[in-house]
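Help needed: design a sequence for this.
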């Protein structure tokens, strides 16, 4: 029998509404992302609360907003909110800060956290759309189903190519993605003909495509420093 996912008053998914297996998978994935066990990972998310006898202090908590699987890799993905509550003086109004992340695992099975916009999440929830897919569409500014992805870089197939073309054998994207192609075009975005992309650290598998593709660098939302994203 399929379990119906239930949401709370702020649209957060109630973890208790998930099956025991999925609940455990979600919590384990979040906990992995919360750890700073790699040099290029975000700082530890120090969850919990610390208040003095006058009620001054801070707390950091998280809520689940979406759970699903990547269309291409089939790996588990979750969308979460990190929420910081700070009260600096007992009679002051508290300061509440929120950051949202898409969390999953790379090919080497290490967790990643990609900062995303809250408006994209809440808009998808209101419209009854797949929140994970909506977030991925926003990250790459296209239909995520169509992309060939390598970490936070994607090749997006196009049928119309800008007129300004250049011949160049190799281009380095984001200092770690080596792009080779028969021909390039530049017009606001970078386009590549018959691209081959190699990830220099080797975390992601080599990808390639036949025809023209737009090279899309994943968009990252702003975030508070209590919850920094990973570096791909």
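Sure. Designed sequence:
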């Amino acid at each position: 029998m399929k379990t119906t996912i239930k949401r709370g008053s702020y649209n957060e998914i109630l973890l208790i509404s998930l099956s025991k297996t999925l609940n455990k998978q979600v919590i384990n994935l979040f906990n992995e992302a919360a750890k700073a066990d790699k040099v290029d990972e975000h700082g530890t998310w120090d969850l919990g609360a610390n208040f003095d006898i006058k009620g001054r202090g801070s707390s950091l908590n998280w809520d689940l907003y979406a759970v699903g699987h990547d269309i291409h890799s089939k790996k588990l993905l979750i969308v979460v909110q990190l929420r910081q509550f700070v009260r600096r003086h007992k009679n002051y109004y508290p300061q509440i800060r929120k950051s949202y992340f898409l969390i999953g695992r790379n090919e080497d099975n290490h967790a990643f956290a990609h900062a995303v916009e809250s408006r994209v999440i809440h808009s998808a929830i209101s419209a009854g759309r797949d929140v994970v897919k909506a977030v991925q569409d926003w990250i790459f500014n296209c239909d995520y189903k169509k992309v060939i992805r390598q970490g936070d870089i994607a090749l997006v197939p196009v049928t119309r190519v800008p007129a300004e073309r250049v011949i160049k054998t190799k281009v380095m994207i984001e200092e770690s993605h080596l792009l080779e192609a028969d021909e390039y075009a530049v017009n606001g975005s970078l386009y590549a003909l018959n691209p081959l992309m190699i990830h220099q650290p080797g975390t992601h598998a080599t990808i390639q495509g036949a025809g023209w593709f737009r090279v899309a660098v994943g968009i990252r939302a702003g975030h508070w420093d209590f919850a920094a994203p990973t570096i791909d």
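The radius of gyration is 20 Å.
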